Amino acid sequence: MSTExxxxxxxxxxxxxxxxxxxxxxxxxxxxxxHPSTTYLRDPDGGYSSGRGYTRPQNPSYDTPEDLLAxxxxxxxxxLFSSGMAAATAVFQSLLPGDHVIxxxxxxxxxxxxxxxxxxSWGLEVEMVDTSDNKNIAQAIRPGKTRLVWLETPANPTWxxxxxxxxxxxxxxxxxxxxxxxxxxxxxxxxxxxxxxxxVVHSATKYLNGHSDVLAGxxxxxxxxxxxQRIRTWQGDAGAVLxxxxxxxxxxxxxxxxxxxxxxxxxxxxxxxxxxxxxxVAQVLYPGLEDHPQHELARRQMTNGFGGMLSIRLADGHAxxxxxxxxxxxxxxxxxxxxxxxLIEHRASIEGAATPVPFDLLRLSIGLEHPDDxxxxxxxxxxxxxxxxxxxxxPETIKSSETSNDAFSKHVAQICNEHIRPTIQDRGGDIxxxxxxxxxxxTVSGSPGALVPLRDWISGVLKHYIPEIEDVNxxxxxxxxxxQADKASDESLEQFxxxxxxxxxxxxxxxxHLTEFxxxxxxxxxxxxxxxxxxxxxxxxxxxxxxxxEQFSEIRTVVDLxxxxxxxxxxxxxxxxxxxx
Length: 581
Fold this sequence. Notes:
By secondary structure, the protein is of the alpha/beta class. The protein has helices at 3-8, 12-17, 55-58, 63-73, 84-93, 109-119, 134-140, 164-173, 186-189, 226-238, 244-254, 257-275, 295-301, 318-327, 347-351, 371-381, 386-390, 407-426, 455-465, 490-505, 536-551, and strands spanning 77-81, 100-104, 125-129, 146-152, 177-181, 199-202, 217-221, 281-285, 309-314, 332-333, 343-345, 361-365, 429-436, 439-446, 471-476, 479-480, 510-518, 521-528, 557-560.
């Protein structure tokens, strides 16, 4: 019997530890060799009998880690990517403009931000719902338009569970695909394909590698089909590929996947139980606890443990969470999860004011340390003084829109707050809602580019949930769009900018000046906090220019003459992170 056939009869722990039992044919080495070559020799007739032509899609270093992960997940095939984000975005970029996708309200923040800033600008209709209740997914389905449902379960960092099997039934009845981010449970605890998932996505940087020294991603498919080939083509053609050394390190990490995940899960449960009744902890969020609202679902969907991730909410609020994170010694204050070292992070500070994460929450990634050391470290960190709380400077948070007492208006405000406002906020704007009879008026502040390109999507969301709505009007600043287009002139353009665009930009401390209008070309200059802002181009191209050309039909183009490099206080920094200052 061949080594490959023997491996298929073995338990997954053994398959992982022995990397499918493969041995290098040339040297008989039990550790696979590294293949740094970027190209491969052609045959005399110009063909590639080896099956390999170029490293981007065909490096031999990918073969074993891809095959191992596909085996562990129970899938038909696997593709490695340069990062978890490269893997996740490849799925969405393999869809078509106009496709409707459903994603969780609480999910990996970088992906949520990318979906709102880029995917929606490119034409995907992205709708966030609370996927912990299948009714919400079913209500959001748009027959003939919904193409994909995305789950993250447990959801980072509040750890709600989503029913994979139930979601798969709903998605498949609508001819949509179900994709599950399995980064946190890993196939050690959950195999989504067994519950009906079509694709499984991993940030392999986390548990699969497990040593905080590799950036990688992966997708596993239940079936080889046309959509899978589209993803594979995207990966190769776009260059979202893993380096051979990173692939080699990833395989090394996967060999210890089972003992690492099992120990982290056991320690996480011990830590969670210890702090359940701590005087300064309001709530422990962990699906392995019996008081977790979806504990029974977690028991059905996860085997041999509930994962190494948990969060605690502090009884004394936001300041207490920040103060506690500042006092740890064994836990490391760092972003990421799934490594051998335990990490702590105040996620709301990282994600910014638009985050759905409570500001009193600390996320814990439990590593391989002794549980007593971790518990002792958190215990002493929670012994902060009242003076320490007063020293914490808290950022402003975004408040929800006020709602009317009228039942119809309340319903509109609820849909806006749950399905629309978070998207607008992530894109650098905000909205106010006014309901008059059956007409909804939405006023945008901040970047007009946050709302203007999404007008059809917003109308569709509102009318999907509330068919009684007769019309949706969009207003910029304090003024609605004029019904009659004006003839463009320096005076009319300047008045339009000052009356209808700058009131919105003022919410970000920004302003636009008209510098010149000639030959159907409008030249503008950003000032204030719009100068140098990372969102300036979106604000101009998808907001300001669209509004100006709608109002003045003869305008051919709008040009930004701003010296953005000279901006000293941009609202959204163009540097790493890009958050508002």
